[in-house]
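Hey L., structure's done. Input below.
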Amino acid sequence: MIGRIIGALVGREIDRRDGQGGAKGALLGYAAAGAMRRMGPLGLVLGGAYVAKKAYDRRKGRI
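Output:
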């Protein structure tokens, strides 16, 4: 369950780079969730760290 949530967040962050919403982010998030599941707990940590870093950078840029 947590892997799917982190996969969705990773897909959203990847999709924000090009500025076009749509299926690309969803597909990349699905692929990222699959890759993280295969990597085990390390994949979840790496995916969570990626999302946290992007959120931190975005928040720091607003201030």
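The chain has one domain: 2-62. The mean pLDDT is 79.

-- N.
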